[in-house]
Amino acid sequence: MATGTVIKYVGRTTDFKGKSLGEIVGSLKNFGVGRIIVRSVFLRYPEPSFMKIVKVQTCPDEERRRVRVGVEKTFRGQKLPNITEIYRTSYKTDYQLIPKREETRLLESINTIGNKADVILPNSIEMPPLMKLFIIKDHEKKGLETSKDFMMPLSYNQSPNRTNKIAKANEQPTIKFTMGLGKPVSPSLYDGIPL
Amino acid sequence: MFSQSSYLKRTIPLFIQTAGAHRKPRWLPVAKSKVYRIPKRPTTSEEERVELLRLHNNYKTQMRAIRRFYHEDMIKEKSTKDSASSEMSQQLEADEWARCFELNEKWNAEISAAREERRKLEIAKLEEYTLARMEAKDKELQIKIKKASEKIREQKELSKTFITPENLDEAIDLAIANPTDYNYAIDMKGMKFEGRDTIISYPKEDKNVAAN
Fold first, then answer.
1. ipTM of this predicted complex?
2. Partner-chain residue, chosen from A12, A177, A189, that has the shortest CB–CB distance to B48
3. Residue ranges of the domains in chain B?
4. CB of A95 closer than 8 Å to CB of A18
5. Between chains, do A189 and B36 touch, taking CB under 8 Å as contact?
6. Is residue A150 predicted with pLDDT exceeding 90?
7. CATH number of A21-113
8. Which of A65, A77, B79, B121 is deepest in the core (most CB within 10 A)?
């Protein structure tokens, strides 16, 4: 065979970058316990996200692409209190191993990044104008009192990965959500359009 | 018309087919000629991506709030309805039932009275019709009897002239004495001359008329 053969890959491109967790863990001493890995899609966030391997388990033969790994997860600069298990996503070829010499830098970067705890999300939002009218009419029809501040509760998806705090009963939120389009982040898209 | 490279790089099919058009079944693999055709990945600018993300997040937050509000509203309404139905509305329901029952009774009475009246009328009509029919039948029968009796009388009268063994000889004699000849002749003018041996003779005036 010729040595200079160039392999040309044909197919769709992917956003994934790296190896599957099984590949990484299988080639490390003590199955990489204590080492740090990153999921490359989480690198899109400005805050550091990484995982420290705590426990590695093999899987039955039918699931040979997968591996059961317990990790201490740090997501967007916040360390989760419990150990997270990676199993369903362990086959994804999106994991990268962090070299030992960079580990300390990564661990320290959590402290340098600003404290995210000062962002508090509101727990209520004002009703849209038409809905207000509907509510007034509806209450009149049912004979209820109409005096109301027209605020309705906001709900958020609950996830351990949630980074921003949600305002408790009397807490003052730092951000306010309103009905409507809001202020554009890229005004150049709205050139010549009155907002 | 199209260069091959542009044909390969296209993201949207050039010719949009309708659903009814013939196409490859889903379970067949990629056609040989299309194996190396890789759809171009859509690209969005960072600006646009960020703005769309913001808008979508906004929309989802707003909609979630509205949906939650109405969901809770519905639950509240349902619970109040349920609690009300346990005590208060039972009395209401009973009253409603009684009211409905009374109304139904009233309707039934009305309808039954109307039905009685109608039945009476119908029976009267039927009686009338039957009587008329019977009368007509009777009349018909009377006429028939009358006709029959008349015929009998006629026949009785006729029977006097019948030939019986007693008057057979008499009848034979009479027949011989009075022979009947049924033969006749008709001339060109339609005049009838009875008898086989009748001598044909025209009266004088008649001859003139015939000559004319």
1. 0.81
2. A189
3. 97-160
4. yes
5. no
6. no
7. 2.30.30
8. A77
